[in-house]
Amino acid sequence: MISPDVRKTQITPHLPSFRALIALEAVVRHGNIVKAADELGVTSGAVSKQLSALEGALGARLFETGHRLVPLPAALTLSRSVGYAVSIVRDSWNEVAQNAAGRTMFIAANASFCMQWLAPRLLQAQKIVGGRPVQMSWLSSSDSWIRNNVDFAFLRGRVPPGDWICEDVGGETVTFFGNPEWCSRAREMGPQRLAQARFIKATTRPFVLERLLTAAGVDSTVDAQETTQFYIAIEAALAGDGLLAAPIALCRELVMLGRLAIPFPEITVAGERIIFASNPSTCSPAVQRRMSQWVQEEFRASDRLCTD
């Protein structure tokens, strides 16, 4: 351990404001006071004042005289050192935030996505984040999904906070699903007689059934039982209550298990885009990159058409 006497000789007693040094680094990097001020969330006047304070403390100029911001050697030296110091602090903070006390990571998504897509892959997600525990956070349309320190979120028709890192995972592919008995019955009727079938739809996914029926060439009113949540509609389809218009990614596992089937694989429509969002304040860049790559690969694989 360094003794107090040695520390006194190593640390300048009149070290300038760290905010002023941060402002200098931003100005040198951007070459523009206005851009630096925007990044720091302050006024350009405040940045100019901080630069003047640094020059006063040094007793020397940091930029050449004139309208253009041309940094002098002293400014370049300080800027490099501050940038390096900030990068070390940022990396250390991210590491501590990610690993502190084995904190559980939370992934937010709507209930049907959690149940049908995320739950079967939860152990894989834990491996991706280095073995840390991962929990799902179920959300309804009225919930604020950024509560409870959520680390990742799957969004469908929602706008994340501006500082979150967002990536378009891909669009859903929607087709008809039903239990094997209903699908056998639907195939016997054929697409041209689909209007005679019974259907299930959820209020949380408006117009999906209608769009798929239009793609099938059905323009008449059909018998459709409505549920308040999509996961309830899936359960109704499993129970044999009718055919369901659903994303392949959410029902693929049930098809592979033989619990659901696809009567007309040639009839599909594009669904909504799925956005994968990462919280930069709780996820290190390395974890974010690994999760993003895994999600992209898994979702694209799960959205491929499968038939019974």
UniProtKB/TrEMBL annotation:
Keywords: DNA-binding, Transcription, Transcription regulation
SUPFAM superfamilies: Periplasmic binding protein-like II, Winged helix' DNA-binding domain
A Pfam family assignment: HTH_1
Entry-linked InterPro entries: LysR-type_TF_proteobact-type (IPR058163), LysR_HTH_N (IPR000847), LysR_subst-bd (IPR005119), WH-like_DNA-bd_sf (IPR036388), WH_DNA-bd_sf (IPR036390)
One Gene Ontology term from the biological process aspect of the record: DNA-templated transcription
Annotated ranges, domain HTH lysR-type: 16-72
Similarity comment: family membership: Belongs to the LysR transcriptional regulatory family.
Protein name per UniProt: DNA-binding transcriptional LysR family regulator
Organism: Shinella granuli
